[in-house]
Specification:
The complex is a heterodimer.
Chain A (H helix, E strand, L loop, with lengths): L1 H12 L8 H21 L12 H21 L4 H4 L1 H18 L1 E3 L2 E7 L2 E3 L1 H20 L6 H20 L3 H18 L3 H20 L3 H11 L10 H13 L10 H4 L11 H34 L3 H25 L17 H19 L7
Antiparallel strand pairs in A: 1-2, 2-3
Chain B lengths: L13 H28 L1 H12 E6 L6 E2 L5 E13 L6 H15 L3 H10 L8 E7 L1 H9 L7 E11 L12 H4 L1 E4 L2 H7 L9 E5 H5 L1 H5 L3 E7 L5 E9 L6 E4 L3 H17 L5 E7 L4 E8 L13 H9 L8 H4 L9 H10 L14 E3 L8 E3 L11 H7 L2 H11 L1 H10 L17 E2 L2 H6 L7 H8 L5 E2 L2 H12 L3 E3 L4 E5 L5 E4 L4 E4 L4 H16 L16 E8 L11 E8 L12 E6 L8 H13 L22
Parallel strand pairs in B: 2-10
Antiparallel strand pairs in B: 1-8, 2-3, 3-4, 3-5, 6-7, 8-9, 10-18, 11-12, 11-23, 13-14, 15-16, 17-20, 18-19, 21-22, 22-23
Helix pairs in contact in B: 3-4, 10-21, 13-15, 13-16, 13-20, 14-20, 15-18
Classes of the chains: A mainly alpha, B alpha+beta.
């Protein structure tokens, strides 16, 4: 961290500052601000436990860390990452194993490691790390990217960390890994025929995969198929969430005035179900504003990918886009009842420092592609 | 992937970019459409569901209806009962000792007992645990003032039933047989009644009018609308779903003053003959209205309001005189000679005899079918010579009525017993009424017998052995005699009242059935009843200076197991009515007294009725005899 803060002024002092995608930064800041306000509303009325910082204060600390990570990542020349791919991969595996071994209990599953009182979920940063590693791998394949061996290699490469997060158990992150692999393989030029065949294989294996899930994960998945089943039990969150989203109506009930939210009907409203608070308190208008912000952000990322000087930059950008779009789809789809309930946070909005810092790092890398593009234009 | 630099990048594929862009656009499109569907199109529906899920109705108990006596005196009211409760979750451990000590000090109870009660509570720590029930208002206010120093402490009041006497102060004895009592609802009752809106901490009428008029007295509970959080706990009240409708107020047919008068007379009779148990009922024969109904020993219905002390309850249950039963309606006894009313009228109606025909009487009347030649004694063991109906009734000749019963046969006797209302509950507006027994062929078959023996039939003719009645049935039969043949439904509730006890919606008196008896025959019996007083053996009661022609009938009803000398224990009855003249059907006052196991020289019941009439008509006379010594209570009285 100290190295970053020293190098920052130097980096930004250069004319590369002009290369920074200021729109990308704007949308990032708007989303983060949106998330901070919503997090405040979701926690409104509940007193902080004595001796701990209030949630919005902690969010501010994480926010600062996230922005620092963004600037640092943007300052790094992304091409350097290619040489660092192997250590990064080993680091990823190491962090995930560490989480399994000493992870503290959050809601019954080993998901996070506590660092100085601020819990950090390594599975979040692993999404970004895997994107970098996979991009490096695919670039290294060169012309051979169309071969089946590339797909198999990518699957093996991602399979090991995916297995580790699945064991935590963190089904959501494992699914994000899947989305990253699929999108990056496709955008790297992998054979569509083999990808389709792979997709068929996954569909065929679905029953076996569902069978391997924990009981509660399976129960939540089935809720998505029939939300009215077992309304008091496993599907409770989902049916309450759909009610709250619907009750938001066109303009919502106002910040901190969402009755479902404030009466505690949304047990994890500050985390995975934060969008219900958006929908209930800010209504359809607020929800669409949020969706549009995501859309604009993704558009800027894709624009970086399109104009990237090399395949590494392009794949980094689409990988980060895949993470964000997939999480938005699964999260909002989940709270509106069109996607199964899995623990996937809503990017920038869900309270959680690890997700925020990780995504900022990812976006910083995307910005880096842009910042460092002109130097290599020859 | 360690292969550095040398590998040439593939150029970006515009087709794949386009595909990715379309896929991403689809994702946002699908989410957008879903939000339109949920929030814009179906929004109202979900809002309604969400509101329903977030609200809970908190019941508002209705005020229980008041009960007044016929003169508008309140006899059942509601008073606040103050309860000190503690919410364990709001009482910090550090303050617990101090708070409980202070509460114990203020409430005058033991602090460790409060601690035990708090620890013994097994519900949610958010529940208010009642610690001291029934503190006075001053203490309640004192605790309220110290509220800020007593965290977790709540002082609440809830209405509790209070029964009042004649002077408006608490009196749980005077009317308990009629009013009954309310008490906390039991688990069984709750299981049965929760669908009708009864709550876990509700009270319910258990017996008496409190039970028979439960629905009217209870009223209709209202409901506040409150927010409900996800744990189900109620929060802020946001509106009223329905206002409670107070219970209806009732006016009794009972006059508390007459009730007290009748109680005093009966208690005197029981005390002077060393008896435990008896009944006095006062009625208006024209309407069936009960003016007083005393069943002794009485119990204290005020003791039930907040849940009765188990020791007291057990003592009621263990008392052989069974104070919790209303002996006037719930228990049956042989009516003895008072039943000659039925036998006499039946004999006239069925043509067995005429008003003028005389029949021989015997010292001991031989039972016709008895193979051992046994006979049934006249009560004086001598006989009275030839008697007509009026004199036979006046002298209460057993052998005369044995002959009538045997000539009638059991089923014709039963027919007239039923016409007088015997053998089935009268339908009075009180619970737990017994029906009694009237011998008949059908009854004998229901007992697994071919028929009734002639000895039993003869005994039935004098109200013994196979006849059992409630005191109310017997009084009601005499009321039908007194009013000219109308069997009225006895009533204790006159109608609905306003808050001041004024009658606003009277209940009409109801005739159960018009008797088919000839009015002339009824008059013969009424004259006989008058002769009981004037020429019969009812001692000095004839000397009462009453504004009417006191008529009546005594009864001593043997029952149970004979003593070594052949004598049986007996109950004593006296039933009376006061027409304007001998044989008239205009009586508006009828009284019955029954004394249980009244083995005294005098007829205890007659003395009780005498005492009541002296008081009722405010006579300047006291003609009472001590039933044990047969000495005048006031020898100098005119």
């Amino acid at each position: 961290m100290s190295a970053v803060s020293i190098s920052l002024p130097r980096v930004l002092a250069r004319r590369r500052l002009a290369g920074l995608d200021w729109q990308l930064v704007l949308y990032l800041l708007l989303l983060v601000a949106f998330g901070w306000i919503l997090g405040f509303s979701a926690g409104f009325g509940s007193e902080p436990t004595a001796g701990t910082l209030s949630q919005s204060m902690r969010t501010l600390i994480w926010l600062a860390a996230g922005l620092a990570a963004f600037v640092a990542a943007a300052a790094i020349d992304y091409r350097w990452l290619r040489t660092a791919a192997v250590p990064l991969y080993l680091m990823t595996l190491g962090l995930l194993v560490l989480t399994l071994v000493i992870g503290s209990d959050t809601d019954g599953s080993q998901l996070s490691v506590s660092l100085g009182g601020l819990a950090f979920q390594f599975s979040e940063i692993s999404k970004v790390l895997i994107t970098v590693v996979l991009a490096a791998f695919l670039v290294s394949r060169g012309e051979r990217v169309r071969r089946l061996s590339t797909i198999v290699g990518a699957l093996l490469l991602v399979g090991l960390p995916a297995f580790l997060v699945f064991r935590q158990p963190d089904l959501g992150t494992a699914l994000v890994f899947g989305a990253i692999v699929l999108v990056m393989l496709f955008m790297a030029g992998a054979s569509v025929g083999w990808l389709v065949a792979l997709g068929g294989l996954v569909v065929a294996a679905l029953p076996a995969l569902i069978g391997s899930l924990h009981e509660y994960q399976r129960a939540r998945l089935l809720c998505f198929l029939d939300p009215s089943a077992d309304v008091q039990g496993a599907c409770y969150q989902l049916s309450q969430s759909i009610n709250a989203v619907g009750a938001g109506g066109l303009v919502g009930q106002g910040l901190t005035a969402g009755r479902h939210n404030q009466l505690g009907y949304l047990p994890v409203q500050s985390t995975d179900f934060i969008f219900t608070v958006v929908a209930e308190e800010l209504g359809f208008v607020g929800s669409i504003v949020l969706l549009v912000l995501f859309g604009l952000l993704v558009w800027r990322i894709l624009r970086v990918a399109w104009t990237a000087p090399d395949a590494l930059g392009r794949l980094l950008a689409v990988g980060v886009a895949a993470v964000i779009v997939f999480q938005v789809l699964i999260n909002i789809g989940m709270v509106t009842g069109i996607m199964p309930v899995t623990g996937i946070p809503l990017p920038f909005i869900t309270y959680g420092g690890s997700s925020l810092v990780s995504l900022c790092t990812g976006l910083g890398l995307v910005a880096s592609v842009r910042v460092h593009a002109d130097r290599h234009r020859f | 992937m360690a292969e550095a630099g040398g590998v040439r990048d593939l150029p970006p594929s515009p087709a794949r970019f386009a595909a990715l862009a379309i896929a991403i656009a689809l994702v946002f499109g699908v989410l957008g459409v879903r939000l339109v569907q949920l929030q814009v199109i179906e929004g109202h529906e979900y809002a309604a569901q969400a509101i329903a899920a977030q609200q809970v109705e908190l019941p508002i108990p209705a005020v229980r209806g008041l009960i007044f006596d016929r003169e508008g005196r309140p006899v059942a009211v509601n008073v606040p009962r103050w309860v000190v409760s503690v919410v364990p979750a709001d009482l910090p451990d550090g303050d617990r000792q101090r708070v409980l000590y202070r509460l114990a000090q203020l409430g005058g109870v033991d602090a460790s007992a409060l601690g035990d009660r708090l620890d013994g509570y097994r519900g949610s720590p958010r529940d208010a645990v009642p610690l001291i029930v029934g503190i006075d208002r001053e203490t309640a206010y004192q605790i309220g003032e110290e509220e800020s120093r007593l965290p977790g402490v709540q002082v609440t009041s809830r209405p509790e039933r209070r029964y009042l006497g004649l002077d408006g102060t608490a009196d749980g004895q005077l009317l308990s047989a009629i009013l009954g009592y309310t008490g906390p609802i039991s688990a069984d009752e709750l299981a049965r009644l929760s669908a009708s809106g009864y709550l876990a901490d509700d009270t319910i009428g258990r017996t008496g009018i409190e039970a028979s008029f439960e629905a009217e007295l209870r009223g209709t509970y209202g409901a506040d609308l409150a927010e409900r959080d996800a744990s189900g706990a109620a929060g802020r009240i946001i509106g009223t779903a329905s206002e409670p409708i107070p219970g209806r107020n009732l006016v009794l047919t009972i006059d508390a003053r007459l009730q007290e008068m009748a109680t005093k007379a009966l208690q005197w009779g029981l005390d002077s003959a060393h008896l435990e148990s008896g009944v006095t009922i006062v009625m208006n024969p024209q309407t069936g209205e009960i003016l007083a109904m005393v069943s002794l020993p009485a119990y204290d219905n005020n003791a039930f309001a907040a849940g009765i002390d188990p020791a007291l309850y057990q003592s009621y249950l263990d008392d052989p005189a069974r104070p919790l039963r209303n002996h006037a309606i719930s228990d049956v006894y042989p009516p003895g000679s008072t039943f000659k009313l039925v036998t006499g009228l039946a004999a006239l109606e069925e043509g067995v005899t005429t008003p003028t025909r005389k029949w021989p009487t015997y010292g001991c009347f031989p039972i016709p079918d008895a193979t051992d030649g046994s006979c049934l004694y006249e009560w004086n063991r001598k006989g009275f010579g030839p008697l007509d109906m009026v004199n036979a009734f006046a002298f209460s000749s057993d052998t005369f009525f044995y002959q009538m019963a045997l000539k009638l046969g059991v089923d014709r006797l039963a027919k007239w017993a039923h016409q007088f209302g015997f053998g089935s509950p009268s339908g009075i507006d009180l619970p737990n009424e017994a029906g009694g027994t009237v011998a008949s062929t059908a009854w004998a078959r229901s007992q697994g017998r071919a028929g009734v023996y002639s000895g039993e039939l003869a005994q039935a003719g004098i109200g013994q052995n196979v006849i059992a009645v409630t005191p109310l049935q017997l009084l009601n039969a005499y009321a039908a005699l007194a009013n000219g043949g109308h069997l009225m439904r006895p009533m204790v509730v006159r109608g609905f009242a306003n808050d001041k006890g004024g009658l606003v919606e009277p209940f009409a008196p109801e005739e159960i059935a018009a008797m088919t008896a000839d009015p002339g025959n009824l008059q013969v019996i009424r004259v006989g009843a008058r002769e009981v007083i004037t020429t019969g053996h009812a001692l000095n009661i004839r000397r009462l200076a009453l504004p009417g022609a006191l008529s009546g009938k005594t009864g001593t009803a043997e029952y149970g197991i004979a003593a070594p000398d052949g004598s049986l224990p007996y109950h004593s009855w006296f039933v009376a009515f006061v027409p304007s003249a001998s044989g008239a059907d205009d009586s508006t006052l009828a009284v019955i007294t029954f004394t249980y196991r009244a083995m005294a020289y005098g007829n205890v019941s007659t003395e009780v009725v005498k005492y009541f009439l002296q008081e009722y008509f405010e006579l300047d006379q006291d003609l009472r005899y001590d039933p044990l010594t047969l000495r005048r209570i006031s020898p100098d009285s005119p």
